[in-house]
């Protein structure tokens, strides 16, 4: 028999074999409020993307967000809107998210992102640099690298 524990804020399932003669206790890491908030941000951000809710999706980005590849913020927003509305569907899977840095009002989280839409399919390693803005974590920068 297996005991399954699900962490709703980051969609990570831990499994631990449980035998009748053993205690049913499983050691689960205790997360700080900041860590919980970061994992919740990932979950809600990916849900907004999956539901193709452009305004909700953009709300996860800091006012100081710096796009990759030299785009201005206005160019990046226009590109995101065009991509959102061009796809008939979007599927996003965040795999193995890890907070790699958390210091005060700055954090970084890295994960494998499986992306599939009616137009494109890819797998990348994504790093989000986060800042605390008005009491909430926001994405200040994101970088991607191809999965090999």
UniProtKB/TrEMBL annotation:
InterPro entries, per database record: Cds6_C, NTF2-like_dom_sf
Stretch forming the signal peptide: 1-20
Domain of life: Bacteria
Residue span(s) of domain Cds6 C-terminal: 38-142
SUPFAM superfamilies (alphabetical): NTF2-like (SSF54427)
Key words of the record: Signal
Keyword Signal: yes
Pfam families: Cds6_C (PF24125)
Protein name: Cds6 C-terminal domain-containing protein
Organism encoding this protein: Chitinibacter fontanus
